[in-house]
Amino acid sequence: MQVDQFYINGEWVKPFSKDTFALVNPATEAVIHHIPLANQADVDRAVSAAKQAAVSYSETTVQERIGWLTNLLQIYRQRAADMTDAMINEMGTPRSFTEAVQTPCGDGHIEAMLEVLADFEFSHTSPRGGSTLRHEPVGVSVLITPWNWPINQVVVKVLPSLAAGCPCVLKPSEESPLSALLFAQMVHDAGFPAGAFNLINGNGAVAGHHLTSHPDVDLVSFTGSTRAGKLVQTNAIDTVKRVVLELGGKAPNIIFADADLPAAIAFSAQGCFSNAGQTCDAPTRVLVERSIYEQVKVGLIEATNNTQVDDPQKTGDHIGPVVNRRQFEQIQSMIQQGIDEGAELLAGGVGRPAGLEQGYYVRPTLFAVDHTMTINTEEIFGPVLCISVFDTEEEAIRMANDTIYGLGAYIQTTDLAKAQRVAKRIRAGNISINGAAYDYDVPFGGMKQSGNGRENGLYGLHDFLDIKAITI
């Protein structure tokens, strides 16, 4: 792994650009690396490598791709500890959480994609039998990933691209380059052909802009904010690229009176605060049926106050810092705005937790809110939980859907018929009932301004394939 280089056309190369980004460890506020930032020449070199590989890589057999992915799975598992360390250092995700949740996303998704490739029919007859339908690679893909779930977001884009036969250029967030660089070395060691996978680091304004508007790019898969997603779509218009977006969220979490309240309260706090609240589908809006509101409020106050914040290098059930100073200050501003708007501060508040004066640590915070308050409608991306009250099932559904987002939603009830009924009416791509977790083969993506397309397994593969009909 070469921190000061890019991976292009099967080798580590020095960037043309002299610009760098100071990568800061969010727990110590110390600069740990200076990461090169790609300029237009770097982008052109990476895209050219992918384009040159497009024909030969698209003609590789499924068995060849399965072989390379199997090698990758083996290598990933051998270097899982290195991947854990990389994510701890770049984004401050705590060691125990990283080992149990973040790092396993890599091999979990590789396994799921191998299962898909083993059974997927790239060529088959049409439903009435008169034509042959071929699923062919879209072409050169650009993959732009965020920092909050570093390796997860890398693999859910790289794997379907390579499995489909699309050579790709990965631009990870400059805030989380270490895990992506390590993954690039794994791809190299797995034996993928030169040009099939390329990596550059860079910022959105330069590298991101040139990648998403590049005439030789056929598909852009982007995960990030809704604001940035709109810019990606705009950049792609002139060449009518396929654009796959996984964007922001403000997920509702409905707790009905018949829920298992201890379990629902524990899930609500953990779901919001884990990963320091930096999860796009985190259940940040808790909607509680009036008859149990006070009981849930008391339980969430206790759960919030009991959420520990500590050094991410330590093992244990605690959360770490948020990713950088800008994010820390934005969260502080949103907490203060909640106070200024008149929300009832139930736990936490502005400032760092006691005893943590260095590092971008945020106090887990709980507000009782009016449904329309800013902190209850805008994505905060930090450990801030809002609680509000509803009277009827109909009102709960209306409040849940009263958002521009539609990524995730959560329902807590022991009445599974009611859970299914409510789930059908909520406009969100992924709905969890009673804290159930999605498997790696389950499609993930949003509705409304949370994006389009789907990631994971078979459904992620489809986004990188065109359908050709051949009729004789």
Work out the strand percent: 15-25%
Could you name the CATH topology of the largest domain?
Answer: Aldehyde Dehydrogenase, Chain A, domain 1
The chain-level structural class is alpha/beta
Mean pLDDT: 98
Tell me the Rg in angstroms: 22 Å
Bulk shape: globular
Distance separating the two termini: 50 Å
Annotated CATH architecture of the largest domain: 3-Layer(aba) Sandwich
Taking strands numbered 1, 2, ... along the chain, how are they ordered across the largest sheet? 14-15-16-13-12-18-19
The DSSP helix count reads 16
Uncertain residue segments? none
Largest sheet: 7 strands, mixed
CATH superfamily of the largest domain: Aldehyde Dehydrogenase, Chain A, domain 1
Helix amount, in percent?
A: 40-55%
Give a structural overview.
The chain is of the alpha/beta class and 472 residues long. It folds into two domains: 264 residues, Aldehyde Dehydrogenase, Chain A, domain 1; 189 residues, Aldehyde Dehydrogenase, Chain A, domain 2. The protein is 41% helix and 20% strand. The protein is globular and about 65 Å long.
Summary of the model, kept short:
The chain has helices at 40-58, 62-78, 80-91, 95-102, 104-119, 150-164, 177-190, 204-213, 226-236, 261-273, 293-305, 325-341, 374-377, 393-401, 416-425, 457-462, and strands at 6-8, 11-13, 20-25, 30-36, 123-125, 131-137, 141-144, 168-171, 197-199, 219-223, 242-246, 252-255, 285-289, 344-347, 365-368, 384-390, 405-406, 408-412, 430-433, 447-448, 451-452, 465-471. It is 41% helix and 20% strand. By secondary structure, it is of the alpha/beta class.
